[in-house]
Design brief:
heterodimer; A: 294 residues; alpha/beta; globular; B: 92 residues; alpha+beta; 2 helices; 38% helix
C-alpha cells in the first residue's frame, strides 16, 4: 500500500533528546536534519549521532528521512556516505537540481551495492527551494527513479525571488501550482512548505487546506504540535465520506443493472467522480474513519 | 589512532553527554566520568566509552565526560566524534 506522507516533521539532527522522541510524535515521516538545524562546526557530530540513532532507535511507523547537506557543499557527500549504509527510507536533498539528484542517485547505486542492499532501496526527495528548481521540477523528478516526492521550500524560494514571505502566501502560489502539477504528473507526493508561526494553529489549518486544494498531498512540520492540525486538514469530512460511499453504492447498482452512465441526486456520475469517491473511501478507511474492507 | 590535541563533542543538554579528550604522556586510558545517573548507570556508561575508545584503536588518552542521561548510541557517537576531532585536528 502506498505510504501516507501527510506530515513530514523536521527533527534537529544534533539533539539526542529530540531524536529519541521522534518516533512517538505521530508524524507520517520524520526528517532528521543535518542541514539548517546544525551549525557548521557540528556537522561531523550530527552525522555520527543521526547514523547511530537510525541504527539503534525505534521510529515506530514513521518513515525515516534524513536531510543531507547540499551535494555541492563540503558536507553533502560525507553525509550521504555515512547515512546510506544505515538504510534510512529516504534522503531529502536540499537545493535540488538535476545534477545533484543524478549525483545522489548514482552514489546510492554504488553504496547500496557495497552494503548488499537491493538497488533503489533508499528513496530520494528533492527539496525545491529556488526559482530554477521550480522551473525545472519536472526534469528534477525525471532525473532519478528513486524520487518519491518533492518538498517545496517556500522560505528559500521567496528569498531567491527577492520577494517578501507573507502568511497568505500569494507570492508562492505559482510555485505551489507548478510543483503540485509536476508531482501529480510524475506520480510523486507533493509536500508543502512548513508554516512557520508555530503558535497560529488556525493559520496553519487554512494554509494546509489551501495547499491541499492545489494538489499537495502533505505538508512539512517544524514543530510536533503542528502534526494534528495538518492531519485534520487531510482527513476527509464526514459529508465527503458519506457522499463517496453513496457514489460507490450507486455505481454498483448501475453495474448490476447494466447501465454505463448513471446519475446521483440529479447529477451525472462519470469516471473522475468515481475515482475521487474511491480515493476518499480508501483514505477514510486507512485513517480509521470508516470500518471494514472494501 | 593517536590523540594529538584536546577536543570535545556533545553538549550539557539533557539526554546528551559532553566528552572532552586530551593527549596524555601516561600510558593507557584515563577516564573521569560524572553523570546525573551515576549510581544506576555509571558502570554501563564507562563500559560504552571504553569500548568505543578500543574500537577506534586509541591507546593513550585522557577523557573527561559529563553525562546528562545520554543513551548508549549518543554516548558512543559523542566519544567517537571527540576522538576523531582530537586525532585529525577537526573533521568536516
Amino acid at each position: 500500500m502506498k505510504r501516507l506522507r501527510r506530515t513530514m516533521l523536521f527533527i534537529p539532527g544534533n539533539n539526542p533528546g529530540m531524536l529519541q522522541n521522534a518516533g512517538v510524535l505521530g508524524a507520517d515521516s520524520v526528517i532528521l536534519d543535518l542541514e539548517d538545524a546544525v551549525s557548521l562546526m557540528e556537522k561531523d557530530s550530527a552525522r555520527r549521532l543521526v547514523s547511530a540513532a537510525i541504527r539503534t532507535l525505534d521510529f515506530g511507523s514513521s518513515e525515516i528521512v534524513v536531510r543531507i547537506n547540499p551535494l555541492d557543499s563540503p558536507y553533502g557527500l560525507l553525509d550521504l556516505q555515512a547515512i546510506a549504509p544505515v538504510r534510512p527510507d529516504a534522503l531529502l536533498v536540499p537545493k535540488a537540481d538535476v545534477a545533484q539528484i543524478r549525483l545522489a542517485s548514482s552514489e546510492l547505486d554504488r553504496l547500496e551495492l557495497e552494503a548488499g542492499l537491493e538497488l533503489g532501496t533508499i528513496r530520494l526527495i528533492p527539496l525545491i527551494e529556488s526559482a530554477m528548481g521550480v522551473e525545472t521540477v519536472t526534469e528534477i523528478l525525471a532525473a532519478s527513479g528513486r524520487n518519491v516526492a518533492v518538498l517545496f521550500g517556500g522560505e528559500d524560494y521567496t528569498a531567491d525571488m527577492g520577494v517578501r514571505r507573507t502568511k497568505p502566501g500569494e507570492e508562492i502560489e505559482y510555485a505551489r501550482n507548478r510543483v503540485a502539477v509536476a508531482c501529480r504528473a510524475a506520480g510523486a507526493d507533493a509536500i508543502d512548505t512548513p508554516f512557520t508561526d508555530v503558535e497560529d494553529f488556525e493559520g496553519l489549518l487554512v494554509d494546509t487546506l489551501k495547499a491541499r486544494n492545489l494538489g499537495f498531498t502533505g505538508k512539512a512540520a517544524i514543530n510536533p504540535r503542528q502534526v494534528d492540525t495538518i492531519h485534520q486538514a487531510y482527513a476527509p469530512l464526514q459529508t465527503e465520506i458519506r457522499h463517496a460511499l453513496r457514489v460507490l453504492e450507486a455505481m454498483e447498482e448501475a453495474e448490476r443493472e447494466g447501465k454505463g452512465v448513471f446519475s446521483l441526486d440529479g447529477k451525472m456520475v462519470d469516471a473522475p467522480i468515481i475515482n475521487r469517491a474511491r480515493q476518499t473511501v480508501d483514505l477514510a478507511r486507512r485513517l480509521g474513519l470508516i470500518g471494514g474492507a472494501s | 589512532m593517536i590523540i594529538l590535541k584536546a577536543a570535545k563533542a556533545g553538549t550539557l543538554e539533557s539526554n546528551d553527554i559532553l566528552v572532552m579528550v586530551m593527549p596524555t604522556d601516561k600510558h593507557g586510558i584515563e577516564l573521569e566520568l560524572e553523570s546525573i545517573v551515576m549510581k544506576q548507570f555509571g558502570p554501563r556508561i564507562r563500559e560504552v566509552i571504553l569500548r568505543t575508545v578500543a574500537e577506534l584503536g586509541v591507546e593513550n588518552v585522557h577523557i573527561r565526560a559529563q553525562d546528562r542521561g545520554a543513551l548508549d548510541y549518543a554516548i558512543a557517537a559523542r566519544v567517537e566524534t571527540a576522538l576523531r576531532r582530537g586525532a585529525e585536528g577537526g573533521a568536516l
